[in-house]
What does this fold into?
Amino acid sequence: MIRLKSRQGSTSILIILAFLMLIIFSVLAISSSSADYRLAQRNANWTSDYYQLEGRVSEYRYNLDRLLYNENVTNIDEIADIIRERDPEAFIEFTIDGMNLTRIFEAISGKRILLSMNLDYEMDSFKPIIIKEIPLEFQYREGIEFEDVEVDG
Amino acid sequence: MGFSKLMGIKNKRKKGFTLVELIISVGILSVAGAFILLFFAYSKDINTRAYDLDNSVYHSNYIIELLKAELWDEEPLIDMRVLETSKPPDSISKEIRFDNKWEYVELDEGHDYVLNLNLERNEDGVNNKDLYDVTIEVIKTKPYFRSLTKNMTIYSMETKVYISLEEGDSYD
It folds into this structure.
């Protein structure tokens, strides 16, 4: 059993404890606000990247509309040929309604946007069907090598 | 026999601190306290920066989405629609001001943040639509804690929008 013979020094202990508490709370406050700031910066970078990609999508749409107006094309096949020639990354497929064009835009950060548009047989303008971000989860960085898989016979 | 005993003076030895000890301990405590307060002040400053960055991003996004949707009657874009001209101008700029709570304020009122919106027309448009280079820059007019920089850029972004600034028939 501990017997406290003297009360001397209890004030010092109290002050030391109070200061320790203050130091701990201040460090916690700083780490919490730093984490907040890092998150805000990440969000800001993400948004900048996204709108930069969307800017490229807008420019692409504008160029396609100009193509429709400036080139003397009479049918949808000619347009498809011109687009294939100028932009090999564009995926074109013909449907009953006309032509569907799909194109993926990628930023340096790895963010990707999918653009899908439709052009009907009247050939007025390309109408966007889908403009959406492709989540990073769907980007497979490493392919599966089937040679490594062992099958028990 | 001591002098005090000889003189009949009772020398009571009091337990306590001397003035010098007290001054030193109060000095040490105040220096330590000042450092801790500085930590809290830093924390508040970083929090303010995070809050400002979040709000800058939010308002920039809002304005770009309004532009894309061509909603000219919403508050920040009022008076940006070019109704009078037969052909949209090559460049349009607008200064949007906010108070310290990120509420819109008029141009003649006091403000803490300024959002500079700039639209530059790229080339001749097609089908009554034009491609615009959009630049947004958010500036804090007052300096942050322990910073002397006034008019500091919090956030900036660039994009392009394919929109119509004109109402009515197409122009030539």
